Amino acid sequence: AKAEGRNTYRFFTKELHAALIERKTLLDELTIAVHEQQFELHFQPVIQVERGNLYGFEALVRWRHPTQGLILPDRFIPIAEQSGLIVPLGHWVISQACAELAAWQKREQTQARLALNLSLAQFRDLDLTNHLAFCLTQHGLRPEQLELELTETVLMHDHDAATDIMHGLRALGIGLAVDDFGTGYSSLAYLKRFPVQKLKIDKSFVFGLSSSEDSAAICRSIIALGHTLGLLIVAEGVETALDLAFLKAFRCELAQGFHFSEAKPLNAFTKTMWPAA
Ligand code: C2E
Ligand code: CA
Ligand code: CA
Ligand code: CA
Question: Which intervals hold domain EAL (predicted)?
Fold first, then answer.
């Protein structure tokens, strides 16, 4: 048993060592990637549950790594957040998403909304509001078309400063949504405190919707609660027609997920894919 213990210990140090090396390498590579803009955006359509027409797109960043191929954000956003690289990366995401949506709208002769994800460090960046306003003007987008998705971590931190920035963004006409709702805590308190218009139910609740009574009850309650507060509800992670039927019965307004489409380059979508608005 003693020998086994030692082996386990050696195993863990080796694993830990490898993990640290991988992390350091990724950080070095990410620094270069931000300079060289080795990123691309994929967009996932957001659909109006009642009529099935297009509401807008959520932009999701990917890293086109020179040797590893496409890397998903869960592997590099945490490193970008801890290193501060998320600020320049986030600036790129905002500019690029606005540019791509403007080009898509011109090609399709229609308008769509754009949802962007924002990390805490970006939200503390004094330049954020100016940068957003600049990008909207530059690409001829209305502020009402843009919506920022904030997680509970962003909302929990620094209440006063966060509230000021949010009111400033609202004054410009930009929309605010709570992302991953239900996964953090203090959910109810900040819903009243912050000027948000939308709630996104975390996909972990939506996944079990049509198979688990608990998940169905949680989704139904979040939707009812949100409606009481005058909020629009988005369900993410909608993978089946049955999930969608539940959401429709619960009067959830908006949905996104693999049932409709995964995130893809924006030019993969045309307005004829959905009923006319
Ligand atoms: P999120 O904002 O909660 O985005 C939803 C994630 O769920 C996306 O993963 C999306 O591809 C995935 N998804 C959508 N529908 C389904 C479905 O039906 N089934 C399943 N299994 N998954 C689905 P992705 O693209 O890997 O993004 C992961 C997270 O990375 C995002 O979670 C967001 O928190 C973060 N992220 C992505 N882009 C950005 C960005 O530009 N800035 C910041 N700060 N964070 C970002
Ligand atoms: Ca999101
Ligand atoms: Ca989410
Ligand atoms: Ca998430």
Answer: 23-277
The secondary structure element, H or E, covering residue 136 is helix 128-138
* Of the candidates 37, 35, 131, 119, the residue with the CA atom closest to the CA atom of residue 79: 119
CA dist., res. 92 & res. 41, Å (int): 10
CA distance 277 to 272: 11
pTM of the entire structure?
A: 0.93
Strand runs (DSSP E) across the chain, as ranges?
Answer: 39-48, 54-65, 69-71, 113-118, 146-150, 175-181, 198-201, 232-235, 254-255
Ligand 1 centroid–CA 201 distance in Å is 13
pLDDT tens, residue by residue, 208-247 = 898 999 999 999 999 999 999 999 999 999 999 999 999 9
Q: Does ipTM surpass 0.90 in this model?
A: yes
How many CB atoms are closer than 10 A to CB 130?
10
Around ligand 1, the residues with Cβ closer than 6 Å are 44, 60-61, 72-74, 77, 90, 93, 117-119, 149, 179-180, 203, 236-239, 256-258, 263
> Which residue type, as a one-letter code, is found at position 206?
V
* Close Cβ partners of 116 (under 8 Å, ≥ 6 residues apart): 58, 59, 93, 94, 97, 146, 147, 148, 149
